[in-house]
């Protein structure tokens, strides 16, 4: 017999779901699943257990819930359990959970605890042995993170004060009163925008957080409120859409969404739809060397999920260009994580078939950091990193617009200016440069290596904090 509580990290969105089972009981639970649900079924087969319970800690805003997808794939063996605290309601079949409800899986017991603040309905789950009442762990969802806390501002300004007060009470009256030995299992790791400056460890303990997490140390409410306001990262534009979609109930596919291969003529025909968004997932150097006019360069790293969420409406029809056709399942899965399933097709044979068909190709010039430094009077550096990154040091003379806000602030830039776009390493710079090029900016250059390369070359740095 073995008790298992295994985290499953979804890179890019930095989301953590959990697989819980006592293999002697033959049953298991999953907490906060992502939509590509096969990973949980594989765990079940590995341990010889059936998934019987699928839990949500709250209505998620940052990713597409996979709870309904997983329940459907369990073919009747599992039920979906969601919180109805705080007046929460849903447009899909579910089992309601309230504060104090308990569930047993062999030697494992979960007890639901209402922990509002990040959202009104938010639940955490105390984990204990059925033979002992004392908890040894807590699944904190988005309420308590390693070194951080869930943000209370995702439901709009009219709800922020109420949720901030609720989050303060959750910290003081629940988490701060738990035993130091209790292990915390949060729903997000470093990189998520669901909390400020989340630590890079996958789990922690209540005792460690009491000593090192500033939000657990603040007894004064006004200090707590100010700290949350001062440290909150920008709210990604797709969060309100994800929350609405997860409340309604995402579409169930039963498999990875299927996407057809298009030849050059079919691809061109789909491009004629004015609402279609063309995403080129090749790396920045390949994109810069030649791409289809109007394409956005969002490379197929895990972070593709987040930037597609930020920049592209979930209902928009999408066309894909990839390095190779074999990349399709990975790219489609990354898009699925943030609700982008209206994918009209991909260019079969990638850019090779396009160029061999004699179709026009657009270039995006690249500049090395040495060239930028030597000819700095010819270029206006444009920094698209986060505010904190910008304040810690930047290329002298740069203009700063965070990538997530670029479309909203694009009219503040001069179309005739010659811009050299940079970020930390070049990934976001190429996204931003492709956005500007698509919107009629003709003198755009991206900087491979970006600020990391600039620092490595020991070139001058301007520091906004000094």
Automatic annotation (TrEMBL):
Q: Which GO terms describe its molecular function?
A: hydrolase activity; metal ion binding; sulfur dioxygenase activity
What is the protein name stated in its UniProt record? Answer: Hydroxyacylglutathione hydrolase
The protein's UniProt keywords, in alphabetical order, are: Hydrolase, Metal-binding
A GO BP term here is: hydrogen sulfide metabolic process
Q: Which residues form the Rhodanese domain?
A: 272-363, 375-463
Q: Does the keyword Hydrolase apply?
A: yes
Against Pfam families, the record matches this protein to: Lactamase_B, Rhodanese
Q: Which organism is it from?
A: Salegentibacter echinorum
